[in-house]
Protein backbone atom coordinates (compact mmCIF):
# COMPACT_ATOMS: atom_id res chain seq x y z
CA UNK A 1 0.00 0.00 0.00
CA UNK A 2 1.31 3.43 -0.93
CA UNK A 3 1.62 5.95 1.86
CA UNK A 4 1.31 9.73 1.65
CA UNK A 5 5.09 10.06 1.31
CA UNK A 6 5.04 7.88 -1.83
CA UNK A 7 3.11 10.57 -3.69
CA UNK A 8 4.83 13.24 -5.77
CA UNK A 9 3.61 16.69 -6.75
CA UNK A 10 3.84 17.48 -10.44
CA UNK A 11 3.77 21.10 -11.54
CA UNK A 12 2.95 21.19 -15.24
CA UNK A 13 5.30 23.17 -17.49
CA UNK A 14 2.74 24.55 -19.99
CA UNK A 15 0.88 26.72 -17.47
CA UNK A 16 4.19 28.40 -16.67
CA UNK A 17 5.77 28.64 -20.12
CA UNK A 18 2.69 29.11 -22.30
CA UNK A 19 -0.19 29.87 -19.97
CA UNK A 20 1.22 32.87 -18.12
CA UNK A 21 0.61 31.34 -14.71
CA UNK A 22 3.55 33.16 -13.11
CA UNK A 23 2.17 36.45 -14.44
CA UNK A 24 -1.20 35.61 -12.93
CA UNK A 25 -0.17 34.40 -9.47
CA UNK A 26 1.78 36.45 -6.98
CA UNK A 27 4.69 34.73 -5.21
CA UNK A 28 2.50 34.43 -2.09
CA UNK A 29 -0.31 32.80 -4.05
CA UNK A 30 2.05 30.31 -5.70
CA UNK A 31 3.58 29.63 -2.28
CA UNK A 32 0.11 28.86 -0.89
CA UNK A 33 -0.85 26.72 -3.89
CA UNK A 34 2.27 24.58 -3.48
CA UNK A 35 1.63 24.30 0.27
CA UNK A 36 -1.90 23.07 -0.36
CA UNK A 37 -0.66 20.70 -3.06
CA UNK A 38 1.47 18.88 -0.52
CA UNK A 39 -1.79 17.57 0.95
CA UNK A 40 -3.50 16.33 -2.23
CA UNK A 41 -4.86 12.83 -1.85
CA UNK A 42 -5.47 10.29 -4.61
CA UNK A 43 -9.01 11.60 -5.09
CA UNK A 44 -7.64 15.11 -5.77
CA UNK A 45 -8.74 16.67 -2.49
CA UNK A 46 -6.57 18.61 -0.03
CA UNK A 47 -7.80 19.07 3.48
CA UNK A 48 -5.11 20.50 5.75
CA UNK A 49 -6.34 22.69 8.56
CA UNK A 50 -5.72 26.43 8.40
CA UNK A 51 -3.42 25.98 11.40
CA UNK A 52 -1.36 23.39 9.49
CA UNK A 53 -1.16 25.67 6.46
CA UNK A 54 -0.13 28.59 8.67
CA UNK A 55 2.73 26.50 10.03
CA UNK A 56 4.04 25.08 6.76
CA UNK A 57 3.76 28.44 5.00
CA UNK A 58 5.60 30.19 7.83
CA UNK A 59 2.82 32.70 8.43
CA UNK A 60 2.02 34.42 11.72
CA UNK A 61 -1.74 34.07 11.75
CA UNK A 62 -4.58 32.03 10.30
CA UNK A 63 -6.16 35.19 8.86
CA UNK A 64 -3.24 35.47 6.42
CA UNK A 65 -3.90 31.92 5.22
CA UNK A 66 -7.61 32.62 4.80
CA UNK A 67 -6.92 35.77 2.75
CA UNK A 68 -4.56 33.87 0.45
CA UNK A 69 -7.08 31.06 -0.05
CA UNK A 70 -9.89 33.53 -0.80
CA UNK A 71 -7.66 35.23 -3.38
CA UNK A 72 -6.77 31.89 -5.05
CA UNK A 73 -10.51 31.14 -5.33
CA UNK A 74 -11.01 34.25 -7.47
CA UNK A 75 -8.15 33.56 -9.90
CA UNK A 76 -8.86 31.51 -13.00
CA UNK A 77 -6.55 29.54 -15.24
CA UNK A 78 -7.90 28.32 -18.60
CA UNK A 79 -11.39 29.34 -17.52
CA UNK A 80 -11.36 27.32 -14.30
CA UNK A 81 -10.59 28.44 -10.74
CA UNK A 82 -7.03 27.85 -9.58
CA UNK A 83 -8.51 26.62 -6.31
CA UNK A 84 -11.99 25.41 -5.37
CA UNK A 85 -12.98 25.41 -1.72
CA UNK A 86 -15.72 23.28 -0.20
CA UNK A 87 -16.62 24.75 3.15
CA UNK A 88 -18.27 22.37 5.57
CA UNK A 89 -20.58 23.54 8.33
CA UNK A 90 -21.71 21.60 11.37
CA UNK A 91 -23.75 22.57 14.41
CA UNK A 92 -21.81 23.26 17.58
CA UNK A 93 -22.96 22.49 21.17
CA UNK A 94 -25.49 25.33 21.01
CA UNK A 95 -26.95 24.26 17.68
CA UNK A 96 -25.30 27.12 15.82
CA UNK A 97 -23.72 26.16 12.53
CA UNK A 98 -20.00 26.87 12.38
CA UNK A 99 -17.47 26.25 9.65
CA UNK A 100 -15.37 23.13 10.06
CA UNK A 101 -12.36 21.86 8.16
CA UNK A 102 -12.37 22.95 4.50
CA UNK A 103 -11.69 20.71 1.53
CA UNK A 104 -9.74 22.10 -1.40
CA UNK A 105 -9.31 21.09 -5.03
CA UNK A 106 -6.32 22.48 -6.92
CA UNK A 107 -6.76 23.00 -10.68
CA UNK A 108 -5.28 19.82 -12.14
CA UNK A 109 -4.16 21.63 -15.28
CA UNK A 110 -1.57 23.23 -12.97
CA UNK A 111 -0.72 20.69 -10.29
CA UNK A 112 -1.34 16.96 -10.02
CA UNK A 113 0.01 14.10 -7.96
CA UNK A 114 1.46 10.82 -9.05
CA UNK A 115 2.94 7.67 -7.58
CA UNK A 116 6.43 6.80 -8.75
CA UNK A 117 6.26 3.49 -10.54
CA UNK A 118 9.13 1.15 -9.56
CA UNK A 119 9.59 0.08 -13.18
CA UNK A 120 9.91 3.76 -14.14
CA UNK A 121 12.54 4.28 -11.43
CA UNK A 122 14.58 1.26 -12.43
CA UNK A 123 14.30 2.18 -16.12
CA UNK A 124 15.56 5.68 -15.31
CA UNK A 125 18.53 4.29 -13.37
CA UNK A 126 19.38 2.00 -16.30
CA UNK A 127 19.14 4.94 -18.73
CA UNK A 128 21.53 6.98 -16.57
CA UNK A 129 24.01 4.08 -16.43
CA UNK A 130 23.85 3.67 -20.24
CA UNK A 131 24.36 7.40 -20.69
CA UNK A 132 27.43 7.36 -18.45
CA UNK A 133 28.83 4.43 -20.41
CA UNK A 134 28.22 6.18 -23.76
CA UNK A 135 29.90 9.33 -22.47
CA UNK A 136 32.92 7.34 -21.34
CA UNK A 137 33.18 5.60 -24.73
CA UNK A 138 32.72 8.88 -26.56
CA UNK A 139 35.50 10.62 -24.64
CA UNK A 140 37.79 7.61 -25.15
CA UNK A 141 37.22 7.77 -28.91
CA UNK A 142 38.75 11.25 -28.96
CA UNK A 143 41.62 10.23 -26.75
CA UNK A 144 40.40 12.22 -23.76
CA UNK A 145 41.86 10.90 -20.58
CA UNK A 146 44.70 9.12 -22.41
CA UNK A 147 48.25 9.97 -21.45
CA UNK A 148 50.08 12.10 -23.95
CA UNK A 149 53.58 11.34 -25.17
CA UNK A 150 55.76 14.39 -24.88
Notes on the protein architecture:
The chain is an alpha+beta fold and 150 residues long. The protein has one domain: Winged helix-like DNA-binding domain superfamily/Winged helix DNA-binding domain (Arc Repressor Mutant, subunit A), CATH 1.10.10.10. Helices cover 43% and strands 20% of the residues. The chain contains 6 helices and 9 strands, in the order βαααβααβββββββα. It has a 3-stranded antiparallel beta sheet with strand order 2-8-5. A two-stranded antiparallel sheet has the order 1-9. β6 and β7 form a beta hairpin. α3 crosses α5. The longest helix is centred in the last third of the chain and has 24 residues. It is elongated. It starts with 6 loop residues before the first strand and ends in a 9-residue tail after the last helix. The mean pLDDT is 83.
CATH top level assignment: Mainly Alpha
- The CATH homologous superfamily name equals Winged helix-like DNA-binding domain superfamily/Winged helix DNA-binding domain
Task: Compute the separation of the termini in Å.
Answer: 63 Å
Mean pLDDT: 83
Low-confidence stretches: none
Strand content: 15-25%
Radius of gyration equals 23 Å
Examine the secondary-structure arrangement and name the CATH architecture: Orthogonal Bundle
Query: Helix segment count?
Result: 6
Number of strands: 9
Fill in the CATH topology.
Arc Repressor Mutant, subunit A
Approximate helicity band: 40-55%
Count of individual domains: 1
Task: Give the strand line-up of the largest sheet.
Answer: 2-8-5
Instruction: Tell me the overall shape.
Output: elongated
Report the major sheet.
3 strands, antiparallel
In N-to-C order, the SSE pattern is EHHHEHHEEEEEEEH
Structural class: alpha+beta
Amino acid sequence: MKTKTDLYIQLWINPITKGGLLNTLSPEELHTLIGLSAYIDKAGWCNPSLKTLKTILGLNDIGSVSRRIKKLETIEFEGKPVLKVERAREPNDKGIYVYTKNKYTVNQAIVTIFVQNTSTSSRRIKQMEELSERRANFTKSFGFGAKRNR
